[in-house]
Design brief:
Homohexamer. Organized in a ring with a central cavity. By secondary structure, this protein is α/β, with parallel strands linked by helices. Helix content is 43%, strand content 19%. It contains 26 helices and 26 strands. The strands form 7 sheets. Strands 19-20-18-17-22-25-26 form a 7-stranded mixed sheet. Strand 17 and strand 18 (599-611) form a beta hairpin. The longest helix is centred in the first third of the chain and has 53 residues, at 182-234. It starts with a strand and ends with a helix.
Length: 766
């Protein structure tokens, strides 16, 4: 056993017959070099287990090292020596002693196993073949070194040389040094080389792909530059790149900081995604929508209450309650300048001017106007938009309407809000809750835009025909304004001020060519239309204009004047009978008053008796509530038969048939209760009911009369039908003031609390 100086190495493993140049600077290592030089002996080099350890102990070194010969040593600056050492053999370190000259190791050679000659020869060939594939890709090797491995014929020397040139970690290098069996070392080295070859092939493939991608990008860049040059030569204006155009528009928007960061992140993605990718089109469409929205763009309200009143009066006759509400809003806004836009719901029958009123409000405020029709909308995404993950996704109708308005404070008309429906795609009425909630719509989030948009300054106006079809949570968020039907006088005034001039213009007629007298307009209202609004009246006036235009065009007349007597010539026979509800007092026939989504109407309820066994038959397409009212009235008459001087056994000997004409039209509601009871008693007693009396009210089993709704519309219907007396519940007496004065003057209202009071009015002296 020999005793030689030992030099610890960090991150370096030295193999026999392989020369290595190292820099030595640690005091312990310097003493080992000086001792070997002074005693003219070889040196033992051993690798540390931990590379970062500056002051190793003997136990921190591997047990197997290499005996080396110092070929050359030169001094560098900073007390560092550069040494060229050449390995001689593998040695095992049995113990290490510390002396004044440094560490000395007691060593003995490692016994090597050679194996069979055939295996060794085969491994040498395989190693040369495989390493030959790899050697060209090893960095730092000169051409001479790359050919040197072919000179080795012994397996031990070849494995040591190849291992020293591979870029593998220290632990694997040390394991190859410690392996005494040359055949095993060769087999392990084959696996290492195969792995390295596979890694290099994958790197080359990736490098080739990257090169092709770069070449394609460069080609596209050159083509675009050439296109720009050609456009410039041809005098075309050079088009700015799409990402830069969108980025400039985004930077010009007045956005919250969080929103700006999110959308700019999308804009940066546009630079990265290839233009041929489907994702590019999705991002570009999104950004196009984003920059087209009116972020921070508002129109300045014209807060002049007098001007607004003049505009509303010029555009619409009547509708005083709606006009007052708008003027109140303007007055408060003028004083505070910070009031959020109200959410109004204009409810009333068709043709009374709900949509045109919203346009007039926008005109009075000098705001932009946008209309969205909600009739038949069944998909929640129509309101809140689609997610961008869907093909063909787009924002909802609210955001699209704001884009159309080009301002964030337009007058936004939600037309026919009562006609939304729900199915498997969601409930759009529920999606409207956030839009119409003043506490939430300050940060309305559309599924497509995904960023909060402030709707608090939008003046939302909804229209509806039937308020009962609007869900209660949605109705609670809106300020309901009921618009009743028009009286005859109001319809004629609307026709003179608005409808006739409009139709003359549309039909190319001048005022001097066609004159429609006032009595002709009254005749048109009474006998050719029966409606709460004026839509059909406008059609009738349009028909008069067309017929007059024909006469003028063929030269038959130069000027046409239409009077009450002449109107039948143009419109034909009257469609409706104007005057009394009934032509004479009748037994078992009573005029009732009904309220529908199309306004008020009159219904004649008829009762017929026939011999039988007390069967009660109801016809006229009555709803459940109206059938129950008939059952209630029937039970009340049976219970009080003697008091009304009716045979108490009538229900055993007579069948009773209750019919409401116009059987094709569905009818429902409790307000026909007293009408049915009166008709029953009239038929059973033989007393006639006055033809000019109409009635409405719900009846109980005790004969009490309960309040109803829609009194204003019912009074207008009674007025149109020519009735003079209306029997109403006592609790509805407070609603009389809402009826136009011209109607109140021609009607006598009789408030009642019991059916006896109703009968006194209905039968009178009969």
């Amino acid at each position: 056993m020999e005793k030689l100086p030992i030099l610890p190495l960090r991150g370096v493993v030295v193999y026999p017959l392989i020369g290595v140049t190292i820099d030595v600077g640690r005091p312990l290592s310097l003493r080992a070099l000086l001792a070997a030089k002074e005693h003219e002996t070889d040196l033992i080099v051993v690798t540390q287990k931990e590379t970062g350890n500056e002051s190793p102990e003997p136990e921190d070194l591997y047990a197997i090292g290499t005996r080396v010969h110092i070929a050359k040593m030169s001094e560098l600056s900073n007390e560092t020596l550069r040494v060229r050492i050449v390995g001689k053999e593998r040695v095992r370190v049995d113990s290490i002693e510390s002396t004044d000259e440094g560490w000395f190791a007691n060593i003995e050679p490692v016994e090597l196993t050679e194996g069979e000659e055939v295996e060794r020869t085969a491994l040498v060939r395989l190693l040369k073949e495989q390493f030959g594939k790899l050697v060209a890709n090893i960095k730092g090797m000169s051409p001479d070194e790359r050919r040197r491995f072919e000179m080795y014929e012994r397996l031990e020397s070849l494995t040591d040389y190849i291992t020293s040139k591979l870029d593998v970690d220290v632990e694997l290098r040390q394991a190859m040094l410690e392996e005494a069996d040359a055949v095993k070392r060769g087999l392990e080295l084959l696996e290492i080389i195969a792995h390295e070859v596979e890694v290099i092939e994958l790197e080359q493939e990736m490098r080739e792909r990257t090169k092709k991608s770069i070449e394609q990008a460069q080609r596209e860049y050159y083509l675009r530059e050439q296109m720009k040059t050609i456009q410039q030569e041809l005098g075309d204006q050079t088009q700015e790149s799409e990402p830069n155009r969108l980025r400039e528009k985004l930077e010009a928007l007045d956005l919250p900081e969080t929103t700006r960061k999110n959308v700019m992140r999308e804009a940066e993605r546009l630079n990265v995604v290839p233009q041929t990718s489907p994702e590019y089109a999705v991002i570009r469409n999104y950004l196009d929508w984003f920059v087209s929205l009116p972020w921070g763009i508002e129109t300045e309200d014209k807060l002049d209450v007098k001007h607004a009143a003049d505009v509303l009066d010029d555009d619409h006759y009547g509708l005083e309650s709606v006009k007052d509400r708008i003027l109140e809003y303007l007055a408060v806004r003028q004083l505070t300048n910070s009031l959020r836009g109200p959410i109004l719901c204009l409810a009333g029958p068709p043709g009374v001017g709900k949509t045109s009123l919203a346009r007039s409000i926008a005109s009075a405020l000098e705001r932009h106007f946008v209309r969205v029709s909600l009739g038949g909308v069944r998909d929640e995404a129509e309101i809140r938009g689609h997610r961008r993950t869907y093909i063909g996704a787009m924002p909802g109708r609210v955001i699209r309407g704001l884009k159309q308005a080009e301002s964030k404070n337009p007058v936004f008309l939600l037309d026919e809000i009562d006609k939304m429906a729900s199915d498997f795609r969601g409930d759009p009425a529920s999606a409207m809750l956030e839009v119409l909630d003043p506490e939430q719509n300050v940060s309305f989030s559309d599924h497509y835009i995904e960023e909060p948009f402030d709707l608090s300054n939008v003046l939302f106006i909804a229209t509806a025909n039937d308020v009962s079809q609007i869900p209660a949570p949605l109705l609670d968020r809106m300020e309901l304004i009921q618009i009743g039907g028009y009286t005859e006088h109001e319809k004629v005034e609307i026709a003179k001020r608005h409808l006739v001039p409009k139709q003359l213009k549309e039909h190319g007629l001048k005022k001097s060519q066609l004159t429609i007298k006032e009595d002709a307009l009254y005749e048109a209202v009474r006998r050719y239309t029966r409606e709460a609004g004026v839509r059909n009246l406008e059609r009738v006036i349009g028909s008069l204009c067309r017929k007059a235009a024909k006469q003028i065009a063929i030269g038959e007349k130069k000027r046409v004047t239409i009077s009450k007597k002449a109107i039948i010539t143009y419109l034909g026979k009257p469609k409706y009978r104007y005057g009394k509800g009934e032509t004479e007092d009748s037994i078992g026939a009573v005029t009732g008053l009904a309220y529908t989504a199309f306004g008020g109407d009159t219904l004649t309820i008829e009762v017929a008796l026939a011999p039988g066994k007390g069967k009660l038959q109801l016809t006229g397409k009555l709803g459940d509530v109206m059938q129950e009212s008939a059952q209630t009235a029937y039970s009340y008459v049976r219970a009080n038969a003697e008091r009304f001087e009716i045979d108490p056994t009538f229900y055993e000997r007579q069948d009773i048939h209750i019919h409401v004409p116009e059987g094709a039209v569905p009818k429902d509601g409790p307000s026909a209760g007293i009408t049915i009871a009166t008709a029953l008693i009239s038929a059973l007693t033989g007393k006639k009911v006055h033809r000019d009396v109409g009635m409405t009210g719900e009846i109980t089993l005790r004969g009490r009369v309960l309040p109803i709704g829609g009194l204003k519309e019912k009074a207008l219907a009674a007025h149109r039908a020519g009735l003079t007396t209306i029997v109403i519940p006592k609790d509805n007496e407070r609603d009389i003031d809402d009826i136009q004065e011209t109607v109140r003057e021609k009607l006598t209202f009789v408030p009642v609390t019991t059916l006896d009071e109703v009968l006194d009015v209905a039968f009178g002296g009969n």
